[in-house]
Design goal:
With 245 residues, this protein is of the alpha/beta class. Helices cover 30% and strands 24% of the residues. The chain contains eight helices and eleven strands. The protein has helices at residues 4-9, 46-56, 70-79, 96-105, 128-137, 188-191, 202-208, 229-243, and strands spanning 13-18, 61-66, 85-90, 115-119, 122-125, 142-147, 155-158, 164-168, 177-184, 212-216, 222-225. It has a seven-stranded mixed β-sheet, sandwiched between helices. Strands 5-11 form a two-stranded antiparallel ribbon. Strands 7-8 form a two-stranded antiparallel ribbon. The protein is globular, with a radius of gyration of 19 Å. 34% of the residues are buried.
């Protein structure tokens, strides 16, 4: 049976950080912001997939932080048939990642409740509800989703004498990385800098205080950061393979 207290602690609001220029995705981002780039074969921009996922996970309100070509993203949001309520904010001057997150969080409808956040170039599917429960169980101020991406190169295995024993194509990394998806407690926004990068200030401080948690994305769940044209092509192929299972 689902714990009703756990359900009440799960966020119903989120911030999507969609202000990046996406220079490595050019020419796709010459006339649109990075989250508006479509994954081939889906007919939907990255942010469309994100909003659908958030809604499926119980989110009812989203604040989208816009920047590069904000008007293109805003126009799409105004005309799209969305499964939740969306508000957009635009920084009048660059605030940095931490300052931008703080500015967007100030527009959430429930300042006294926890919230999700995601980078605008992440294409993933896993249980945010499970992540929120993990966050609450550890009494964390912030929880980061952790991914173990595949390396873009082949790897070799060697024995103790330096002989190569095997070749492995694109193996998973031995390290977990920040997957760009978060759960934050209500007080987290006050800890963010007005300007600057929270990953250099707020996160290290919380880690030292043992108030920063890491939620491993479950094995078999889909995750990819869309940074380059190659990522788009590979994501399309991976999604087609998943659909064919």
């Amino acid at each position: 049976m689902t714990d009703p207290n756990a359900v009440s602690r799960r966020p119903v609001q989120a911030v999507v950080l969609a202000g990046g220029q996406g220079s490595r995705l050019r020419p796709y981002t010459d006339d649109r912001p990075k989250p508006m780039v479509e994954i081939p074969g889906t007919g939907t921009p990255i942010i469309g997939h994100q909003l659908t996922w958030l809604a499926e996970e119980g989110v009812t309100d989203v604040v989208v932080s816009c920047g590069h070509l904000a008007e293109v993203l805003q126009k799409w949001l105004e005309t799209a048939d969305l499964p939740l309520s969306v508000t957009t904010v635009v920084e009048t001057e660059p605030l940095g990642r931490g300052g931008g997150l703080k500015y967007a969080a100030a527009h959430l409808p429930h300042p006294d409740r926890p919230w999700y956040a995601t980078n605008g170039d992440i294409w993933t599917r896993f249980s945010l509800r499970d992540m929120a429960d993990f966050h609450a169980e550890r009494d964390a101020v912030a929880t980061l989703a952790l991914a173990r991406p595949r390396l873009p190169w082949g790897a070799v295995q060697t024995d103790g004498f330096g002989h190569i024993t095997d070749f492995i194509e694109a193996p998973p990394s031995t390290f977990e990385i920040n997957a760009g998806v978060y759960v934050f407690s209500p007080g987290f926004a006050a800890m963010l800098p007005e300007r600057g990068d929270h990953e250099r200030t707020t996160f290290p401080r919380l880690a030292r205080e043992h108030r920063l948690a890491g939620f491993p994305i479950p094995q078999g769940s889909y995750w990819r950061a869309i940074d380059t044209a190659k990522d788009l092509t590979e994501a399309a192929g991976e999604l087609a393979a998943l659909a064919g299972r």
